[in-house]
User: Fold DUF2264 domain-containing protein from Nonomuraea roseola.
Amino acid sequence: MLALPPEDRSLSPYTGWTRAHWEAAADALLSAVEPYRSPDHSLITLPGRASWSGCDGLEGYARTFLLASFRVAGGGDPAALQPYAEGLATGPLGTWPEIKDHFQPMVEAASIALGLRLTRPWLWDRLDPSVQDRVVGWLEEALRREHVDNNWHLFPVTVAGFLQELGHDTQAVIDRGLDRIERWYEGDGWYRDGEGRNFDHYNGWAMHLYPALHAHLGGPSEPYATRLRAFLGNYGSAFDANGSPVYQGRSLIYRFAAAAPVWAGELLGVSPYSPGTARRLASGALRHFLADGRALSPQGLLTLGWYGPHEPSLQPYSGAASPYWASKGFLGLLLPADHPAWTSVEEPGPVERADQAIGLPGPGLLVHSTAADGLVRLVNHGSDHQPPGGGPDDPLYQRLAYSSRTGPATLADNHLGLVIDGEVTPRGPITPLGAGPGWAASSCRPTPSTLIESVSMVRGPHEVRLHRVTAPSGTVVRQTGWALPEAAGEELTGALLPLHGFTRSSVMESSEGTVFGPDALVPCLEGECAGPESVFVCVATLSAAPAPPPPVYDPVGATVTWHDGTVQELPL
Assistant:
């Protein structure tokens, strides 16, 4: 548990947290890593799993340095920078791995360069010139080396921005990196993270964050400010009333880094939210993970998971210090203490005001939430994280739906597949077919000779799923629903009801559970194709409040009648 100030429910009626809570949380996270510094202070090697890069000590140094930099640049005690300054003297001499092609130190170089730029009066300008030369020499390799063709293009941009401030001619590197991400912009504030359909939290804590910081520190503000505003216009609807972001995509161990773009909007003055709403979203995310220490080890360290340690949440590049990219969530400390984002009374977030059903054509996503329980669901008709030519399904990307209170199970939940030779086919690459208010659609080819065209329509806690399946007569079609831990009880309920085409129902057990609890139960529907083209319809429900009656489907008119009498035609 963190030592935090008393809650202030007058200034912050929704979270109780103020700037003082953010400062205390930052100080506690920094204090907890102190025992793990190397004698020369150039590495922070935390206990636990090693990443595949072998650069864990450098990760610990760089990512906590970023947190210390936000803290000091925002008015904290400059003494917090002293051990990092000492580490700069020896790190480039060899304790830090060299920056090479496609190698992790390039990522960490960006955090170090950004921290040095933000804290220049207290740190860089006081270093011995010989130390400055060694650090510059190490950082410059980030401008020469090949990097992964995704958000990594923004790391040389960040390093080059600092070196440019020191008088180096690095504009070509900055232009090259910013030009590269242009090809991935899909509109509505959404970028792909590299080639392929990779849409997740990296859109906020990388693709928007680094250009926004570059603009904040003197770079061009457009088109990045306009795009950030467009992104934030819908992004706030992806935060649960309990503060949790939606559990989808990779690197989820960064947790409250999801608050970074909200603060970036305030830094650039382009937030579509009132200052009180912006702080409510950001403080809600931080409080969700830290208020009761649920994301911390007994030593006060961020764990490798969502709450406690959770192996399925990890990627091969995840090491013990990796979660400290959560430091990005503390970006708001750069705002002065008298900024309206800190002094305004908290106001409700979007999900607390009214039910939401927002279709995002660019990424092919549909965000829908319910004010009665504050729960957010993300219907996925566009993000698949597939390599060229396809590959195995990634459970963090290719499910039909995700939420802020459930996670994928090892047994394929929220999945529509064909049962061939006893095995369920993967979803594979997703082709988006459009999205609009309350609906989204896509297609996929489970096998070269079969086709599934799917459309989702949402209202309240319900999602109607219609699938038009092109497959041989007699082919078994299997649809699964939300994976709920057995312990969820009445706090969270889910249902999967057949409306057309499905003839059998069952419940499957996933003994490994999900990030939200063990022994998950997954509802399942099955039916057989009646011809070369068959239609299957069901309704998937996830709710933490009493749910209205499920809708009725009319196969003749392909319409759905909702509980309030509203009739909608499914966009086939």
About this structure: The mean pLDDT is 96. The longest strand covers residues 533-543. The radius of gyration is 24 Å. The longest helix spans residues 56-73.
